[in-house]
Automatic annotation (TrEMBL):
Protein family: Belongs to the arsenical resistance-3 (ACR3) (TC 2.A.59) family.
InterPro entries: Arsenical-R_Acr3, BilAc:Na_symport/Acr3, Na+/solute_symporter_sf
Name of this chain's protein: Bile acid:sodium symporter
Organism (species): Streptomyces sodiiphilus
Pfam families: SBF (PF01758)
């Protein structure tokens, strides 16, 4: 993990503080708000450019990990997210929606880094990425409309349109770029000249989006500071329950240590950039939902670092992508 990746949560926090200070000192709100969604869409395109669909083949050799991750990510986690929101944020509808958007979206990028840090099976982890992505695309509107309750004031058509914008547009752009460059320049050129530079753009674009969002919503943030602090309790519960549950399921299934690490990381890490983009697109008149989503990675990334160290496989060499 590079020094920049280790400092990711700190850099996101600094971007939020810089945006907040800028928004309080100068009237930049409207202009800053227009930067958020474009920055997030470009960032997601950069994330998808690094996705290698060829690794899906590893899924067929790890059926137990795949089945467990799908159940935990798309059945257990939404139920837990609903329970945490209803039980702890019942009188804060915007925070409930923000929490729900964050918790029902499995990570499609940095969980690979933490899997590698903990010496998990990176091939299976990478193969799960497109599976998680497709299922998010299909199920996100269902989760929000069914579990959001009266707090959700957007219709199915509007939410589906926002999901298609936030997910399908960047994914289509990335696939076209990957196929075109791979055909005319070759896979090695694509990896060195396209995927690798795209990976270096993800964090700066996320910081830009976060800074712009806080600059545009500085007044809302200061007015609802105590409400945002309330998110730490459900988030803390979530990031404790999921690793423990994944560990218990792994032992029940008698998974090898590298696969156990992979399962833990893929069901614990969340896709806050995607959830943030969706919140900006689907709920433009409820900025607190988007602001709430920035609290997630401020707690998630340090905790994932700790979990990666606790779960680190010491009795095995690093698992290669071509071994189950």
């Amino acid at each position: 993990m590079s020094p920049t990746e280790r400092l990711q949560s700190v850099l996101v926090a600094l971007a939020a503080l810089a945006g907040l200070g800028t928004g309080l000192l100068w009237p930049v709100g409207p202009a800053a708000g227009h930067l958020v969604l474009p920055a997030l869409l470009v960032m997601l395109t950069a994330v998808f450019l690094q996705m290698d669909a060829a690794q899906v083949g590893a899924v067929r050799r790890a059926g137990a990990v795949v089945a467990a991750s799908l159940v935990l990510n798309f059945l257990f986690t939404p139920a837990l997210a609903w329970a945490l929101g209803a039980g702890l944020l019942g009188d804060k509808p915007d925070l409930r929606i923000g929490l729900l958007l964050l918790l029902v979206t499995p990570c499609t990028d940095w969980y690979l880094v933490f899997t590698a840090m903990a010496r998990g099976h990176t091939g299976i982890a990478a193969a799960l990425l497109p599976v998680n992505l497709v299922l998010q695309l299909v199920l996100l509107p269902v989760y929000v409309l069914l579990l959001g309750g009266q707090a959700t004031t957007i219709g199915a058509a509007g939410l589906t349109e926002s999901v298609l914008l936030v997910l399908l547009a960047p994914l289509t752009a990335a696939l076209v770029l990957r196929r075109t460059t791979g055909r005319f320049k070759g896979a090695d050129w694509r990896r060195r000249r396209l995927a690798a530079p795209a990976g270096r753009l993800v964090l700066p674009l996320l910081c830009l989006a976060v800074a712009a969002m806080f600059a545009g919503q500085a007044r809302n943030v200061t007015e609802h500071a105590t409400d945002l602090i309330a998110l730490f309790v459900p988030l803390g519960i979530f990031f404790t329950v999921l690793p423990l549950t994944a560990t218990g399921v792994s032992r029940l299934l008698r998974l090898p240590a590298p696969q156990r690490v992979t399962l833990t990381m893929t069901v614990t890490a969340r896709n806050s950039p995607l959830a943030l983009a969706l919140a900006v697109a689907a709920f433009p008149d409820r900025p607190l939902i988007a602001v709430a989503l920035v609290v997630g990675p401020l707690l998630e990334l340090p905790l994932l670092t700790v979990i990666a160290q606790l779960a680190r496989v010491r009795e095995y060499p690093p698992a290669r992508a071509d071994t189950p």
